[in-house]
Amino acid sequence: MSIALQAWVSGRVQGVWFRQGTAEQAATLGVHGWVRNLPDGRVEAWLEGEELAVRGLARWLEQGPPKAAVTGVQVQEQAPQGYTDFEVRR
């Protein structure tokens, strides 16, 4: 079953390879969507694909890459949009 989650990650998550790390994890898990930095210092991600893979990537967001310091993750279920790849947005 395909699901989609939109996530907002707070903490020290910009300038620590968070977007690239998310993209690498997405490729490993077969998750589609995108990730981007927000002007307020958070990272936003759209995760879409098989439920176990999407939820696994959402769990990874709670820690992120080694240099990140995640203080919170907000997740909201969404309707899948049909993404076929994963993009790091600027």
TrEMBL record:
The segment(s) forming the Acylphosphatase-like domain are 4-90
Q: Per the record's keyword annotation, is Lyase included, yes or no?
A: no
GO molecular function: any one?
acylphosphatase activity
Q: Which reaction does it catalyse?
A: an acyl phosphate + H2O = a carboxylate + phosphate + H(+)
Q: Could you list this entry's UniProt keywords, alphabetically sorted.
A: Hydrolase
Q: Cross-referenced InterPro entries, in alphabetical order?
A: Acylphosphatase, Acylphosphatase-like_dom, Acylphosphatase-like_dom_sf, Acylphosphatase_CS
Q: Recorded E.C. number(s)?
A: 3.6.1.7
Superkingdom: Bacteria
**According to its UniProt record, which residues of this chain constitute the active site?**
R19, N37
Keyword Hydrolase belongs to the record: yes
Q: What family is this?
A: Belongs to the acylphosphatase family.
Matches recorded under NCBIfam families: PRK14442.1
> Which PANTHER family is this protein grouped with?
ACYLPHOSPHATASE
Q: What is this protein called?
A: Acylphosphatase
